[in-house]
């Protein structure tokens, strides 16, 4: 399921999404009732739109996907993980602002907006 440029992943679809394209994948691991997790959604939607040719953005609801929480050792919420070529390259365990998130991602990716605002 894709909403606002963000794909919702499950235990069934996660591995395929991780390996299906060379484009890096940013995943927000979140849970119901996590206010900071919900606050990140508009930021992630903007990043997904602005950088759609360079970055895929997805979410995983841990309430429904506990195996993924265990496999990726999610200990805090929200947790953002950037996967490049199927491997974790960056992990953020706070709720960053858009500028902070772009700074973190810039160390792993040369992000350039796809279009001018």
From TrEMBL:
This is Thioredoxin. The keyword Transport applies. Belongs to the thioredoxin family. InterPro entries: Thioredoxin, Thioredoxin-like_sf, Thioredoxin_CS, Thioredoxin_domain. GO terms for cellular component: cytosol. GO terms for biological process: cell redox homeostasis. The keyword Repeat does not apply. Gene3D superfamilies: Glutaredoxin. SUPFAM superfamilies: Thioredoxin-like. It comes from the Bacteria. It holds the Pfam family Thioredoxin. GO terms for molecular function: protein-disulfide reductase activity. Keywords: Disulfide bond, Electron transport, Redox-active center, Transport. PROSITE patterns: THIOREDOXIN_1, THIOREDOXIN_2. Signal peptide: none annotated. Residues 1-110 form the Thioredoxin domain. Disulfide bonds join 34-37.
